[in-house]
Amino acid sequence: MAKTSKIHYEEILIQDFIKFFEEDSNYDLEIKVGEEPNVKIFRGHSQIFIARSSYFKSAFTREWVKKNNGIINFEKPNISPEIFEIIIRYIYTGIVQFENSRTDLLFELLIAFDELNFDYLVNDLQKYLLKKGDICEQVLQYHLVKEWKPIVIVVFPYDAVEHDELDISPNEVIEITQKFDDGWAIGLNRNTGIEGAFPMICTAIPETVNRVNSRIIFEYLPSCKRE
């Protein structure tokens, strides 16, 4: 049986989609992102969004989706224009670049990927962050830049970390963090069972604790081990 010869033109396809996106024509979707004064409206093609994201597929196929003259109007105030620019280019091209990006941008991107159900991007970005360097320092820098209020900082004593992973569940972290009205949390010393404040910052998560997938938090904890 003769072998079938296949010629691949992925690069041409990507360039065609980039042109399709940048020409801003024949769109049927407007997405307003960000909060005042940092707001931007992106135009796109709903079928491409539906094909690329289960989140948008669910959002755009519901009966209550807003339409104006055949144009879907959608809002994502919790995602900044800078982050959504990266996301929409990924949707159209399949390309996203983590290298040489600011720490605060990478963390915002991680949360946005998780919310929009880009699980494979969440996994890849987590791996990149873990390889990038001191994740504890990066998280602290992100907190100082973003000044989330209330912010939840989960800290653990270095002597409680004896192996590559902490023996603590996501539910325990949530239970600990919810005990504090001011938005700050302390760690649980697994050796003594005594709760106390410790100097090692391991991760930072936004005010809605349950909104962020726990795997994002716990992927970081092993890297916070003090030598």
Automatic annotation (TrEMBL):
Residues 147-208 form the SH3 domain. Residues 27-100 form the BTB domain. It holds the Pfam family BTB. It comes from the Eukaryota. The keyword Nucleotide-binding does not apply. Keywords: SH3 domain. SMART domains: BTB, SH3. PANTHER family: BTB DOMAIN-CONTAINING PROTEIN-RELATED, HL07962P-RELATED. This is BTB/POZ protein.
